[in-house]
Amino acid sequence: MLNRINIVSLVAGISTLILIAISLFVPWWQFIVGNPTVGNPAIATVNVSPVNVNLALLGDSFTVPLIYALNIASALTLASGGITMLIYSLRPNKSYSMKLLGFGYKKPLYALIIFVITLVAMSFIVQKISGFTFPLIGSGATSLPRNMLPDGANVSFNVSAAFGWPFYFAIVVAGMCVAARFYHRKVVAIDATVPPQPAPQ
Amino acid sequence: MVAVLSVVLVLISIGTILGPVGAVVIIYHDDLTQLIITPEIRDIIDGKSSLVPNFNQPNNGISNNNGNSDLGGLMNPVFVSAQVDEATNTFSITFNITNSLSYDLTLNSFSANVEITENYHPAGIVSLSNPVTVIAGQTSQFTVSGSWTQDAQNYIVTNYPGTTSFEMYLTNASINVNGITIQSPGPIDLGIIPLNVEG
């Protein structure tokens, strides 16, 4: 039997591992408070990716333990998906291949969906609980909720938010993983039509 | 083979999530609220953080009895000197300002009305002369300029002859620090200001 490779899965698996590495350093979504200048960072920044959430306030960053644990969980989950995609891509026609593919191809897609849902939910929850509104994309001026301040006081500042290029790369990776699932049928179909090699005399 | 692989994959799925989450739960099992509410967040919630403006609280905001103050908790100005030009009814006050944060702060603007606490009589206005940047952990000087009204001068001469100090406060204060604009209708207690007004 020919030892075929699911090239789409191979690329998707490698891309998944690259995505993890990139997401550790470059956020999928960034929220900035204030007007950062050269040599002086923003008053507050929130850098979010499934594998790294970084909160910085006036130059000091702090970590929320539960979020940190979920980041590690997400990184491990994505890594396991990427590795199984790689293993599958080298042996796409074994009896266990479908199990590996089924395990791996969903991980980036799940990460992407959960990331978007979490972001939208957080925006909604923060707005409902504190009254503080912020954009998911774009910039503008906003104010602290009145209930956080003394009577009549007002604290206003500029905020901006944007999705980073790794977010769009994640969409591509998730798309490739799904494509690898469909390409599997083609690989299997090709194998089924290839006549067995005659045994050497 | 396939069955074993299925079990292994399920265990990986569970382990990759439960492992890290379980680890932090064990680490913080004494106080599980610390999983989400870190000491930094706790300070902000409790209003203990220097990041939270604290206008209008007794002896906070821009207030105390020696002309010193803390601008909403972000900076700590200390009175240095004052100059008065009685011919033009203007004055300027110089402060040393200390940035206790690990972050450079730029005081872009500051303005407020000054009122005499007794009877809430308007006394004049104050504003920042020039923007000032205070490097993290360092001290810089800044100057606040102001003017008093002839009406205020007449009021003091008429009602408080011989009085050499007055308790004053700020109203409608507006501060812009690093692009963040903080506005407070006040009153913000200035403490007792030495003032010698002659008719």
Structure characterization notes:
The complex is a heterodimer of chains A (201) and B (199). In chain A, 53% of the residues lie in helices and 18% in strands. Chain A is an alpha+beta fold and 201 residues long. Chain A starts with 6 loop residues before the first helix and ends in an 8-residue tail after the last helix. The mean pLDDT of chain A is 88. By secondary structure, chain B is α+β, with helices and mostly antiparallel strands. Chain B folds into two domains: 2-36, no CATH class; 55-194, Immunoglobulin-like. In chain B, a hairpin with a 4-residue loop joins strand 1 (75-85) and strand 2 (90-99). The N and C termini of chain B lie far apart (103 Å).
What is this entry, summarized?
Chain A is of the alpha+beta class.
Search tags:
heterodimer, A: 201 residues, alpha+beta, Butyryl-CoA Dehydrogenase, subunit A, domain 3, 6 strands, B: 199 residues, 2 domains, nine-stranded antiparallel beta sheet, 9 strands, elongated
Furnish the topology, listing elements before pairings.
The complex is a heterodimer of chains A (201) and B (199).
Chain A: H1 7-25, E1 29-33, E2 44-49, E3 52-57, E4 60-62, H2 65-90, H3 97-104, H4 106-130, E5 138-143, E6 154-163, H5 165-193
Antiparallel strand pairs in A: 1-2, 1-6, 2-3, 3-4, 5-6
Helix pairs in contact in A: 1-2, 1-5, 2-3, 2-4, 3-5, 4-5
Chain B: H1 2-27, H2 39-45, E1 75-85, E2 90-99, E3 105-116, E4 121-128, E5 132-134, E6 139-148, H3 150-159, E7 165-177, E8 180-184, E9 188-194
Antiparallel strand pairs in B: 1-2, 2-6, 3-4, 3-5, 3-7, 4-6, 7-8, 7-9
Oligomeric status: heterodimer
CATH architecture of the largest domain in chain B: Sandwich
Walk across the major sheet of chain A and give the strand order: 4-3-2-1-6-5
Chain pair with largest interface = A-B, 39 and 41 residues
Strand content of chain A: 15-25%
Annotation field: number of helices of chain B = 3
State Rg of chain A: 23 Å
